[in-house]
Amino acid sequence: MQSTVNYLWHTDDLLGQGATASVYKARNKKSGELVAVKVFNTASYLRPREVQVREFEVLRKLNHQNIVKLFAVEETGASRQKVLVMEYCSSGSLLSVLESPENAFGLPEEEFLVVLRCVVAGMNHLRENGIVHRDIKPGNIMRLLGEEGQSIYKLTDFGAARELDDDEKFISVYGTEEYLHPDMYERAVLRKPQQKAFGVTVDLWSIGVTLYHAATGSLPFVPFGGPRRNKEIMYRITTEKPAGAIAGTQRGLQSQLVPILANVLEVEQAKCWGFDQFFAETSDILQRAVVHVFSLPQAALHHVYIHAHNTVAIFLEAVYKQTNVAPQHQEYLFEGHLCVLEPNLSAQHIAHTTASSPLTLFSMASETPKGLAFRDPALDIPKFVPKVDLQADYNTAKGAMGAGYQALRLARALLAGQELMLRGLHWFVEMLQATCRRTLEVTRTSLLFLSSSLGPESDKADDGADAVRAVQEEEVFPRGRNGLRHGRAPVKQLQRRGAAGSATLLL
After folding, report:
1. Protein kinase domain: which residues (predicted)?
2. Once rounded to an integer, what is the mean pLDDT over residues 415-427?
């Protein structure tokens, strides 16, 4: 057991360990409140005095819900080691979340947006106070659950942090190699002598790698054998890649995110965005509302992100980019009713949707349905190596578990899609039937009116009504092997015919 004046902990309750300190779960001696204590080791005291106190000074300056709070600075009894008493985050770190097999292919979109919002807010507070972190990575982003069960992410570990204005530079090297800016990587990992100075944008590179890792479950730049086994190739990948190049399929949220990551993962600091532009672009994403659209031709659910002040025309264009259904051919159903979206209206008029209650999109164009497109999870199942290797076997088993969870996620998406597909087709057939009934009723009324006007010719008119009814039914539900697809397009045609029949009655 170890303790300070007000806090007590057991060395078995280790939360994390670094080169200069260890972090433990501790309790307040009086209240029993759980806290995290950072206990500095003897190696930490070999650093210059100003470096030793820098973390205390930085944390005292910060006060934000997305930054771990500092409660007190105390000392252990006998050894008089410095101890930082901080807020305890019970749900581990973002790294532990990403290490879970169900997130092997990235966080769910909703959870990723929570990470993005929290990291951006925390970093914005750092820059407002002129602080550069210098060691942004998933392991230094803690997670706890709010009162309503929502995730809250907080930046932590300010051992490498220091005050630095936008136009200032530093030459000391800190950080974790997978998340280091290439210029720092060259000097810290490859041990190549160079006298480059670094600015605040090195944090942007680390943020870009972290966000990519959270979105996809993997690092953006990985050489064969891994980044720690092939360091020279790792450096060449990051420095020789084309400007703006980044892996990732551009769909939904990713189409908004990829340009941001591409512009912060730039080696040349002159080409890299500054924090002002990064905050502006990420805020643009976070201020958008999501509209859930289920495409019947694709049998797929899409997330369309738009601003409330956008017009419906912008929404229709965004749907076109994801579904290839042109705006003039888009028709929507919502909760069983035809939903008419006027292009000039504000997007605020679009109904509130959820994943289980989306807008249902069908196309008025005679196109062949594209069907589902997904990657077979079996392709991601790794192979076990013949020789016994505990670490390799662990990684392989973890990869297999990740592929299993991906297959489960895909199966759930397919089942949900099947339900939405059946429901959408049911609504579509009901709409067709209602339109046909209205059109036939108008036609019948028109013929009755004509028969009363023609007198002796009424018998012929009755025969004509039967013929028209047969023709109408054959047009709406034509016979053939393709079944319902033949009766899909004429909704507007039937509406026009109904209007023409009404005009005949008025005459």
Report:
1. 9-295
2. 93
